[in-house]
Specification:
Order of helices and strands: HHEHHEEEEEEEE
Structural class: alpha+beta
Oligomer: single chain
Strand content: 35-45%
Helix content: 25-40%
Radius of gyration: 20 Å
Number of helices: 4
Number of strands: 9
Shape: elongated
Length: about 180
């Protein structure tokens, strides 16, 4: 039975829905491709992921499933994603940017082992992206903690020293010890 002859527009709407779905899938594929290129072209994977998050339009939301797709297509599997990136992005619900501040909203708190270090993330994490002496730095970190040998302290700053090393500074009140970790 031809519904269009009876003035029914449901078939027309179904066609429009299919077009909208195709358009959204094409936009998603393009976003994933751009993200993958940014991450792959960076000097190290951590800087690449941070640069991609910083390149996002201000106030635009990036949903967690897109973050996961970008990581899977860039690294091949979640096991190949560097530990700090997994710690920042595991169970992510949404990522937003306002100026040079990235906010990450997770489904629930997470923890990820990074060698002997454990990175713990609250449901809401925020950090400022800056450059110091031509090095990428995450500073003014809120909601990210490091734990080693049973001692847990909030992370204060993460500096990318080289393509293979990060310098993590924790805030222990008057003390601000640093730890050099391999990426």
């Amino acid at each position: 039975m031809d519904h269009s002859a009876n003035g029914c527009d449901c078939c027309e709407r179904m066609g429009m829905n299919a077009q909208i779905k195709e358009t959204l899938e094409a936009c998603e594929a393009e976003l994933v491709d751009v993200a993958r290129r940014i991450v792959k072209s960076a000097s190290d994977p951590f800087s690449g992921v941070i640069k991609f998050l910083q390149a996002r339009p201000e106030g635009a939301s990036l949903h967690g499933y897109l973050v996961t797709r970008v990581l899977l297509q860039t690294f091949g599997s979640m096991e190949e994603v560097p530990a700090l990136i997994r710690a920042l992005t595991s169970h992510v619900h949404e990522v937003t940017r306002k100026s040079n501040v990235i906010s990450i909203h997770n489904e629930h708190p997470t923890a990820e082992r990074w060698g002997t270090y454990i990175i713990k993330q609250k449901e809401k994490t925020r950090f400022e992206i800056a450059f110091e002496k031509d090095c990428l730095v995450l500073k003014n970190i809120v909601g990210l903690f490091g734990s080693e040998h049973g001692i847990e302290a909030p992370l204060e700053k993460i500096l990318v020293r080289s393509p293979t090393q990060l310098v993590v500074t924790v805030n222990m009140g008057l003390l601000h010890p640093q730890r050099v970790l391999d990426l």
